[in-house]
């Protein structure tokens, strides 16, 4: 498995994209510093104290370095061969966690190993991206044709359903990001329209009774059919769109009432303005906004955050880590953090487009899509633009499973990129 060959442009290490590595190091370091700031106390001042979260994060960072070294020394060609087996193993772990998993925060998402816990859903991400890239890179696979769309939906849908059963809605929603990959690889643009229509139908179904929404859809469909009655194709398209929107509306009502937990329902209702509960479920978002807003332009200074120090902000080292950035480093620090993520994602898109093989390109877009949805939802969650669903900020939030998962996800792609000259 160790790569004994050298490409036309030197070793894998010399061909590694230095800008992406630098951005990774910056984000991991800044994340570590903000974890330290979030849980800092006078009794535990050493950043190397392994009894505290920041000390444990240091261990995760060091072990991530070992994983990186292993990936860089491996033969890049091995990843196509192990794509489906890796996917199968990660799916088995998702099944296993439902049987023997440890329940944390109402979610049965963790496997206890001694004094440590691992979250299989974090590792399922790179397993799914590998499998998706392997299938889409097979000869003659064309997403513009229906017969080739079922396997990608199955590859994406299996982890989605298994994680939803834990139930971990936030981690499950990450897999929707694969539609960005599908679009890049030839899925017709009409599907983006259907996705937008589904989102609008779902939102209106949460605000109003589904029967009213379906009634409006039916009325609009009938009006459209009357206008385009001379075109049989347009009539059937209108009927399909109407049935699709109605199904989404009906399905949204079932999922909201039967799948989501009460606190998740309340968070969505607060976000949509259906109800106001600043001292209940909405308390977390309210405190998050206060913490970020109190930072002003340049922040209160490192280790000077009051909202985080007094534990007003929940999960301040994990899901709400961005609050620490906003409070202690202000608008400037928050903007720099966001900019680093944007530059990283833009760089990854550039790398994906320069790949010589379809496998590497699809994998690259899978990496970008997953990082994007984590970044967008986490930031939106902390500033009240998305419901609180519990999703970490990549490379920043505390947690070994998250850091390991994103590190492996990213550096497999960098290893593939370093090998692109010998792919064809």
Structure overview:
- This protein has 424 residues and is mainly alpha-helical.
- The chain has two domains: 18-191 and 285-422, no CATH class; 194-259.
- It is built from 17 helices and three strands.
- The protein has helices spanning 18-39, 53-73, 78-81, 83-100, 120-136, 150-164, 169-173, 178-184, 190-207, 210-227, 232-259, 262-271, 283-294, 306-309, 321-353, 358-382, 400-418, and strands at 102-104, 107-113, 116-118.
- Strands 1-2-3 form a three-stranded antiparallel sheet, covered by helices on one side.
- The radius of gyration is 23 Å and the shape is globular.
- The protein starts with 17 loop residues before the first helix and ends in a 6-residue tail after the last helix.
């Amino acid at each position: 498995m160790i790569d004994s060959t050298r490409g036309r442009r030197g070793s894998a290490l010399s061909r590694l994209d230095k800008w992406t590595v630098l951005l990774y190091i910056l984000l991991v370091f800044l994340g570590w510093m903000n974890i330290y700031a979030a849980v800092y106390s006078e009794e535990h001042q050493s950043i190397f104290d392994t009894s505290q979260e920041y000390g444990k994060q240091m261990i995760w960072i060091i072990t991530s370095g070992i994983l990186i070294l292993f990936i860089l020394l491996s033969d890049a060609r091995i990843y196509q061969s192990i794509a489906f087996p890796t996917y199968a193993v990660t799916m088995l772990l998702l099944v296993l966690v439902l049987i023997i998993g440890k329940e944390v925060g109402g979610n049965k998402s963790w496997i206890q190993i001694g004094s440590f816990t691992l979250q299989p859903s974090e590792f399922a991400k790179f397993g799914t991206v590998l499998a998706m890239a392997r299938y889409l890179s097979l000869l003659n696979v064309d997403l513009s044709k229906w017969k080739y769309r079922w396997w990608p939906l199955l590859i994406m849908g299996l982890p989605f359903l298994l994680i939803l059963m834990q139930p971990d809605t936030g981690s499950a929603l990450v897999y929707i990001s694969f539609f960005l990959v599908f679009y890049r690889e030839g899925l017709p643009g009409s599907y983006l329209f259907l996705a937008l229509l589904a989102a609008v139908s779902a939102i209106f179904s949460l605000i109003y009774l589904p029967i009213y929404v379906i009634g409006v859809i039916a009325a609009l469909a009938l009006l459209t059919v009357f206008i385009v009655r001379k075109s049989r194709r347009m009539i059937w398209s209108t009927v399909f769109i109407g049935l699709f929107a109605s199904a989404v509306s009906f399905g949204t009502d079932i999922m909201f009432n039967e799948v989501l937990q009460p606190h998740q329902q309340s968070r969505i209702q607060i976000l949509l303005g259906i109800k106001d509960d600043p001292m209940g479920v909405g308390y977390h978002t309210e405190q998050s906004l206060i913490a970020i807003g109190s930072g002003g332009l340049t922040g209160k200074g490192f280790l000077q955050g009051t909202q985080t120090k007094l534990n007003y902000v929940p999960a301040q080292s994990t899901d709400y880590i961005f609050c620490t950035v906003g409070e202690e480093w202000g608008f400037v620090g928050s903007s720099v953090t966001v900019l680093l993520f944007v530059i990283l994602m833009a760089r990854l898109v550039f790398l994906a487009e320069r790949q010589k093989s379809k496998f590497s390109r699809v994998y690259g877009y899978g990496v970008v899509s997953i990082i994007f949805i984590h970044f967008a939802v986490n930031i939106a969650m902390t500033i009240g633009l998305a419901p609180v669903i519990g999703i970490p900020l990549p490379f920043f939030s505390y947690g070994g499973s998250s850091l390991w998962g994103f590190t492996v996800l990213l550096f497999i792609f960098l290893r593939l990129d370093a090998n692109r000259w010998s792919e064809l």
